[in-house]
Q: What sequence folds into this?
């Protein structure tokens, strides 16, 4: 009888264990989990803080007992694997409750210990709570006594923002302190600005470019000298792979600290597999080794490792890092590379911003989706996408993720046949729309980005707002003149054939104007994403 | 100056016209529309009947005047093209208001006249109202006086059912009369049964296998002799391509009555293009010529034709026929082929039914999605999918449509990286889930379909319900014994190694039981889709 020892009993580890049993009734399967709980809903933890998920038990999807009953698993919670003896194929396991130690043999070892919160060496950091386990939630809830009225949250990533929303729902005054110039790193700054704007409208305080200098009893101080009063400080700065055990066992570790694995999740020791947040993934766009701490991938790789251990010759798929977060009335999702990443990698991009409605405008309740597409202009390959909006964001990100997996080009998006009824979409879906804009650019239409406007003006481009006089009066880009689209055919002479940068609200009328003026012999470009993208980008600062 | 005449000013025709102008400022563009309105929201019409879309004007997306102003189009409503002189390249146009006729030259002619409601030769059919144009809605609303309390709706397709819901919202007693054995032809019968069940629970009367014999003043009679009392009769039996003009002009017409076109939407006359509901499409699965009367495709082909006329060498994409309908609290969508179609074409299939939640079960508000996948067992290609559920149906259909377009296999669905946060999905999305089930079948797991149970029992299979005793007590399949999954390891001896067909609620525990029993040496199969698919299928009859 062979035996498999699995380190970590949450997403990846437990997927491995359950699948192993379905594939092999006779294998000995031991799962070692350092916390007191296995198979808990980590992505649900922030929502228990507010009571949106009222029952703590509903976070606990399985227990060691239920797993034993159904899958005949030997699950040991509150146990820590302290060492791997690779030669003897044994692990040393410490019982965290009584301190006793034992050694267990393995034929295959699966490392799925997850990640741990990053705790930078800020004076007083030990005062900050974190959120990663069920015990962490219990601790936060225990601290949220009636006299606590304000919380400072260090970190504007997914978990920090989810937690901020849920603390706000409890009536707390929440300040988010983000070291970078924007929250939500997976988004580009002008897209993150939409989220920032929404969170501020809900009453959250968001400080960007804010470096925490010291944490005290009554809050924290920033490097700028500013003092943030807070009854409680929580750190959600990010996570790092839990690779200490692997490192100490001499397994190869990647540059970013994740356990190195091959296309079958094998570490540098063929008897040892690694997966989940602790292991490196292969980036689908570049082929590089990356860290992508997402539950979906952990689960999938758990199933994969179980299949490989039980004799199937299957391989991992490279990762797109598709993700989403819901914050108050907004969702923000992304897939693949953002523009920042492409710039960092020296990859030229074609950028497209569109702001269509999530479903037919004539049907009640339509909401704007802000969608950004990042394209390789040489190959027309989709490098990535981002979307922010009140409804339908998840669908568009999933469709683009699937298109990327299928190797479809950005122009192919124009032809995707997506289900249309007025409650669900439009005859021209937002994804089709992005494809149309891409197709127009392939056919030669020139666009400028929001951050190229100043330069264009300096270069002698005339800025023309083709919206209605009423829209123009409500605010426009400084220096723009108003020439409404429907008057353009009569009044284009006023432009005196100067280089013309047109814009409208979202880019659609601008496209019509660009086509018209170009045919009339005027060198014209359209402002991508229109006034809306430009205006959100202005909100970034401060 | 070249000129293009476009016959039909709704989805396809108007997309052609607007795109033509963006591509060519100088072309003469004439749009001839027989009704009084152009560019109206046909898919929104049923919702104006109830007032869900309260403003009639919001259905009218453009007017001849607004189109002239923005796009310099010559749009003539209430005008009918009565003849095409292909030699002279002229059309004869009749003004339907004053009867006058004129002839207009074209360099390119675009036929997008749409489809007309099928009106079978039932005695009294002229009494039935239909719904296709804004005028039709006006007529229905004019008939819905206070003394009207009941409506008989002939036809259980998309428009009939949407109209039924909206008439029900107005407080009318609605009876749907469908000639086929099921409503919603794009779905297979056991999937349509879920919709039927829902509509009946809302108070609609649905008669299937019901052939209308005669329509009278006070309702209608069926071939069975049954009398259906109704103050108003509406026929929504389906549509046929409006190809009379093309036929009379000698253009090639396909077997199904649609105008034949090539990969660039050219008819048998190279100066004449056709698109929209009047034209044939290429089926993406089989490559056959088919009729797919969907707005999305009409719009897309309008853009395509404009590009081709203005010199781009672009080609159509074959159609998947992705569609969806919202009915009360349910959505029902489909893409590609259903099982019926595959059977008709002699195409072997692998069938998968799953019933996962639309998002994480631990987050409040999760709803079941009933998802069916139709797979080519030889190539693992996805032939089609159907989904029914309260939320998230559109997303899953769109993802599968995109996967089909990208040439992904059914097993590839297991690896799709879809955006997960507890409000939007699960770490294992319903689409992934269908992929997992497919992968299990590829790896050798055997399943039976709901309609194979009786045969299996006759063949000596023991039917084992692996749900809990409490679930078993609430209803099971006749002849099944109860052996709960968690007891199976101890009690499998009771099966005496007989061929065992296991089932649970949705198929998941059945899969675990199948794995277990197979490893224990018992020939085992799992009932695909579990008790839930089987139980819905029972509701089909009657």
A:
């Amino acid at each position: 009888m062979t035996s498999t020892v699995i380190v970590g009993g949450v997403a990846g580890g437990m997927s491995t264990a359950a699948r192993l049993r379905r594939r092999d009734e006779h294998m000995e399967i031991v799962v070692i989990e350092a916390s007191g709980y296995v198979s808990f809903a980590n992505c649900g933890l922030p929502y228990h803080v507010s009571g949106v998920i009222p029952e703590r038990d509903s976070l606990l999807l399985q227990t060691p007992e239920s797993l034993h009953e159904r899958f005949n698993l030997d699950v040991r919670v509150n146990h820590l694997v302290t060492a791997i003896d690779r030669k003897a194929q044994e692990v040393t396991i410490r019982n965290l409750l009584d301190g006793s130690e034992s050694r267990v043999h393995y034929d295959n070892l699966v490392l799925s210990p997850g990640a741990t919160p990053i705790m930078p060496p800020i004076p007083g950091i030990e005062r900050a709570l974190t959120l990663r386990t069920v015990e962490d939630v219990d601790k936060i809830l225990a601290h949220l006594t009636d006299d606590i009225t304000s919380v400072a949250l260090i970190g504007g990533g997914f978990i920090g923002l989810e937690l901020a929303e849920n603390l706000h729902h409890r009536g707390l005054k929440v300040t988010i302190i983000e070291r970078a110039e924007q929250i939500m790193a997976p988004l580009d700054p002008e897209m993150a600005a939409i989220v920032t704007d929404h969170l501020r409208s809900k009453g959250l305080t968001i400080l960007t470019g804010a470096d925490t200098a010291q944490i005290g009893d009554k809050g924290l101080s920033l490097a700028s000298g500013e003092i943030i009063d807070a009854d409680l400080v929580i750190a959600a700065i990010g996570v790092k792979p839990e690779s200490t055990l692997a490192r100490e066992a001499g397994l190869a570790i990647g540059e970013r600290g994740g356990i190195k694995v091959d296309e079958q999740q094998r570490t540098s020791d063929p008897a040892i597999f690694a997966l989940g947040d602790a292991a490196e993934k292969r980036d689908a766009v570049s082929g590089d080794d990356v860290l992508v701490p997402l539950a979906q991938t952990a689960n999938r790789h758990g199933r994969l490792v179980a299949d490989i251990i039980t004799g199937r010759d299957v391989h991992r798929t490279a990762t797109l890092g598709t993700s989403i977060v819901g914050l108050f009335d907004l969702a923000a999702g992304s897939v693949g590379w953002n523009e920042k990443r492409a710039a960092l990698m020296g990859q030229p991009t074609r950028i497209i911003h569109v702001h269509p409605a999530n479903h037919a405008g004539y049907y009640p309740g339509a909401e704007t989706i802000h969608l950004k597409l990042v394209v390789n202009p040489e190959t027309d390959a989709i490098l990535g996408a981002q979307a922010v909006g009140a409804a339908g964001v998840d669908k568009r990100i999933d469709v683009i993720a699937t298109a990327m997996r299928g190797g479809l080009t950005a122009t192919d998006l124009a032809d995707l046949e997506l289900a249309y009824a007025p409650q669900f979409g439009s005859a021209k879906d937002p994804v089709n729309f992005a494809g149309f804009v891409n197709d127009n650019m392939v056919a030669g239409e020139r666009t400028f980005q929001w951050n190229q406007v100043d330069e264009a003006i300096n270069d002698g481009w005339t800025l023309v707002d083709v919206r209605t006089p009423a829209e123009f009066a409500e605010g426009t880009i400084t220096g723009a003149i108003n020439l409404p689209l429907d008057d353009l055919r009569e009044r284009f002479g006023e432009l005196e054939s100067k280089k013309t940068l047109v814009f409208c609200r979202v880019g659609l009328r601008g496209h019509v104007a660009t086509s018209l003026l170009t045919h009339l012999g005027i060198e014209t470009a359209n402002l991508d994403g229109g006034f809306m993208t430009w205006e959100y980008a202005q909100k970034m600062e401060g």
About this structure: The mean pLDDT of chain B is 96. Residues 338 and 344 of chain B are 10 Å apart (CA to CA). The radius of gyration of chain B is 26 Å.
